[in-house]
Structures are given as structure tokens and as C-alpha cells.
């Protein structure tokens, strides 16, 4: 799976999981709301933490029944008490009567008296079917019985009404959803900025390459025998840097640095550059000066980090006998060490005004022989791999096709 698709896929998976979470939560809330609750109250103690019943005798009096016996009349006041956070609705109260009782009147409810089971079932009217959270619902009746009723056991039935917003899970899912949304917006903004940045970067790269190509065309005009040399060295340098595991920005910078490594030759006289014979000590000095001249020409090009090192150090040797500063080993910048190998390889693999290109076996021998002397052994190993794989020719061909 390509990395660029990973984040969008993760966002899609996240929103699907969030939506599934909401669906599951709605189902759980619906099941909760549709489940009738049975609550038992004994000796004033409820087996439910949020719902109980209070029953009191408001007043009582003596009365006579049809047989002339003295009976007790009483007003019984009750209330369903809801101390919870959910409304309690469609309630029903079942009172267990200790003896036969006559219900004389009732308020805030309707009743069914079962003389066989000695139970009184109270149900609400149209207006008081809901006991709101942290509230109570009063009811009452007047009863006539042989003795004052002392209710010890009650049964309460009903349904809790939980809204989805009453659950902790809802707010957690909502938080995750908005966090996801903010993340998505940020991701889109970043992607837009990155696209804009990459477009600007491509424009900048195009400008840099055009400037560099202009410089290189000047160098090629001065020395036709080295035409294409800078481009080929840049291609080899880029491939070595890639195989060494450098990041994309460094690889791109090394490519630019390699393209400009010989810019100092612009100020070297043509008579020295094109001389077919051996150079005098003075001429050798003049041509070696292209390293310091190049570094000086590039001193203000700060957009490409290390570009001066490439011009200045590509003729330094690993053993410290190179020029212009005779530095050695890892004191030479990595790009300088890579350029030293790539530059020498292309020089040996190209026709020059003073000789024909060398056979490939001879070039490989030279690279091996001078490994640890002129060249960094690690860099030589990568260059030899490129040669063995035949990649040096393919890379150049590909570069020429892309820049035709």
C-alpha cells in the first residue's frame, strides 16, 4: 500500500468506527428504555438505588361497616421518589394488603383492587405518567379496613427514559468525532500547503537548474572535450548518495553541487584547458586553481547547502595529498569524497584532448588500486557496484532522455 493512501484510509476507518459506535450506543439506549424495571421496597428499603416509595397515614378515624362493626378509615399519602438522573415513566405501584380493604377514593391515579390476592395496583393518569429525575410523584387514597394499614412491601414497575446525551459514551464519541474532524481539516490544510510548497519547490528547482545549465553550457563551450562531464558526474553522485541512504533533500543537493563542481574552469584560460600535451608547473597551478575559484564564485549561493565544498574539495585525496588544502579522510566533506570518485571515473571513462578513454577493466583496477589513497574506500565500493551492474550507462541515458 502506498504511504500517501495510508492516512486517508485511516481517517475513513476512524469515521466508520465512530459511526458504528453511535449506532451501537443508540441500540443500547433503546434497549435500556424498552426494558421494564421491577423494584421491590421492603420495610422502607428499596432494592434500587434511585427509586423508592414513601407511604404515610395522613389522618384516620373510626367508621362502621354494613354489619355495624367498628372499622378504621384512613387517608394514605404516598409518593414515588426518583433520585436518579433519568425520568421514570409508565409507572405502576402494587401494594400488598394485609386484610380485606375497601377503597373509598383515590387521587393522582387509578386503581385495581384484587380481593383474592389482596393487592392494590395503582396506575397513573394521563398527566402524571412521568416521574421526572430528581423529583417525586404523589398519589393517595382513602381506605377503610378493620385496622390501620401498615404497608411493608411494595412493588414498583416502570421504565427509565435515558437520552443518548445522558451517557458518558456519547460525549466520548462526540469528542473523538470532533477531534477526528479537526484532524481531518488540519490534514487537508497541510496537504494543500504541501502541494503549494512542492509546486513552489519545483519552480525553484527549475530556476536553479536553468541557472546551473547556463553555467555548464559556458564550461562546455570552453572545453568541448569535457562536454556533458558535469551532468554525468552529477548522475553518478546522485546514485551513490541514494545507495548510501541519504535523504531526498541531501540527494537533490548533492546533484546540484555535482553539476557546479567545475564552475571554476570558467576563469581558466582556454589555452590551458585545451592543451593536448603535458602542462608546465605554472599551468598546472592555474588549472588546479579552478577549485578555489569555483568556491569563490559560489560563496553567495546559500540556497544549496555545501555547494562550495563540492567545488573546493573534489580534488582532495583521501590520504591528504590532494589539492588545494591537502585535507584527508573524513575531514573532507562527504560530497567532496563522493565527487572525487565520480569525477575520476568519468574522466577515465571519457575521451580527453590528451588521451582516449580507458578500458573499463583498467578503470576498475585504478579505482581498486587507489581505494584508501585517492578515494574513500566506502564510496569506491558503491561506484564499483554501479559499474558491475551496468547502471552507469543506464543512468546517463535516462538523464539524457529526461532532459532532451
List the helices and strands and how they pair.
Elements: H1 3-33, E1 37-42, E2 45-46, E3 51-64, E4 70-82, E5 87-96, E6 101-107, E7 110-114, E8 119-123, E9 130-131, E10 135-145, E11 153-161, H2 168-222, H3 229-243, H4 248-259, H5 270-273, H6 281-288, H7 290-297, H8 307-313, H9 334-348, H10 360-369, H11 377-388, H12 391-402
Helix pairs in contact: 1-2, 3-4, 3-9, 3-11, 3-12, 4-8, 7-8, 8-9
Structure summarized in a few sentences:
By secondary structure, the chain is α+β, with helices and mostly antiparallel strands. It is built from twelve helices and eleven strands.
Describe the protein.
With 404 residues, this protein is α+β, with helices and mostly antiparallel strands. It has 3 domains: 3-32 and 168-186; 35-166, Sandwich (Immunoglobulin-like), CATH 2.60.40.290; 223-402, Hypothetical protein af1432. The protein is built from 12 helices and 11 strands. A hairpin with a 5-residue loop joins strand 3 and strand 4 (70-82). The mean pLDDT is 89.
For this structure, the CATH topology of the largest domain is Hypothetical protein af1432
Estimated structural class? alpha+beta
User: What is the chain-wise order of helices and strands?
Assistant: HEEEEEEEEEEEHHHHHHHHHHH
How many strands appear in the DSSP assignment?
11
CATH class of the largest domain: Mainly Alpha
Looking at the overall shape, the CATH architecture of the largest domain is Orthogonal Bundle
Please tell me what the overall shape is. Answer: rod-shaped
What's the average pLDDT? Answer: 89
Low-confidence stretches: none
Separation, N- and C-terminal Cα atoms: 33 Å
Q: How many domains comprise the coordinates?
A: 3
CATH H-tier superfamily of the largest domain: Hypothetical protein af1432
Determine the strand fraction and express it as a percent band. 15-25%
Using only C-alpha atoms, the radius of gyration works out to 47 Å
Amino acid at each position: 500500500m502506498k504511504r500517501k493512501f495510508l492516512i486517508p484510509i485511516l481517517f475513513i476507518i476512524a469515521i466508520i468506527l465512530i459511526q458504528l459506535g453511535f449506532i451501537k450506543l443508540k441500540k443500547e439506549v433503546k434497549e435500556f428504555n424498552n426494558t421494564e424495571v421491577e423494584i421491590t421496597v421492603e420495610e422502607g428499603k428499596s432494592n434500587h438505588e434511585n427509586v423508592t416509595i414513601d407511604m404515610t397515614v395522613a389522618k384516620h378515624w373510626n367508621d362502621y361497616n354494613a354489619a355495624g362493626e367498628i372499622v378504621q378509615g384512613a387517608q394514605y399519602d404516598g409518593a414515588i421518589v426518583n433520585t436518579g438522573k433519568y425520568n421514570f415513566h409508565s409507572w405502576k405501584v402494587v401494594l400488598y394488603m394485609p386484610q380485606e380493604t375497601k377503597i373509598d377514593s383515590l387521587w393522582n391515579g387509578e386503581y385495581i383492587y384484587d380481593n383474592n390476592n389482596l393487592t392494590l395496583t395503582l396506575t397513573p393518569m394521563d398527566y402524571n405518567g412521568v416521574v421526572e429525575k430528581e423529583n417525586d410523584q404523589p398519589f393517595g387514597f382513602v381506605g377503610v379496613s378493620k385496622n390501620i394499614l401498615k404497608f411493608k412491601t411494595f412493588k414498583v414497575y416502570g421504565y427509565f427514559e435515558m437520552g443518548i446525551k445522558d451517557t458518558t459514551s456519547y460525549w466520548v464519541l462526540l469528542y473523538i468525532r470532533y477531534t477526528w474532524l479537526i484532524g481531518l481539516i488540519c490534514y487537508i490544510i497541510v496537504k494543500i500547503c504541501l502541494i503549494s510548497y512542492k509546486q513552489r519547490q519545483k519552480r525553484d528547482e527549475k530556476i536553479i537548474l536553468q541557472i546551473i545549465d547556463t553555467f555548464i553550457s559556458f564550461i562546455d563551450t570552453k572545453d568541448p572535450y569535457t562536454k556533458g562531464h558535469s551532468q554525468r558526474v552529477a548522475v553518478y553522485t546522485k546514485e551513490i548518495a541514494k545507495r548510501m541512504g541519504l535523504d531526498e533533500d541531501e540527494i537533490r543537493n548533492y546533484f546540484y553541487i555535482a553539476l557546479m563542481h567545475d564552475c571554476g574552469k570558467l576563469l581558466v584560460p582556454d589555452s590551458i584547458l585545451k592543451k593536448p600535451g603535458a602542462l608546465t608547473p605554472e599551468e598546472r597551478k592555474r588549472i588546479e586553481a579552478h577549485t578555489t575559484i569555483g568556491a569563490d564564485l559560489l560563496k553567495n549561493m546559500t540556497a544549496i547547502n555545501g555547494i562550495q565544498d563540492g567545488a573546493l574539495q573534489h580534488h582532495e585525496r583521501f590520504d591528504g595529498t590532494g589539492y588545494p588544502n591537502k585535507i584527508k579522510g573524513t575531514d573532507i566533506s562527504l560530497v567532496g569524497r563522493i565527487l572525487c570518485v565520480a569525477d575520476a571515473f568519468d574522466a577515465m571513462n571519457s575521451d580527453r584532448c590528451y588521451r582516449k578513454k580507458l578500458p573499463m577493466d583498467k578503470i576498475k583496477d585504478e579505482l581498486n588500486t587507489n581505494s584508501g589513497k585517492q578515494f574513500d574506500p566506502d564510496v569506491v565500493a558503491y561506484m564499483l557496484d554501479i559499474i558491475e551492474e551496468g547502471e552507469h550507462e543506464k543512468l546517463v541515458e535516462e538523464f539524457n532522455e529526461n532532459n532532451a
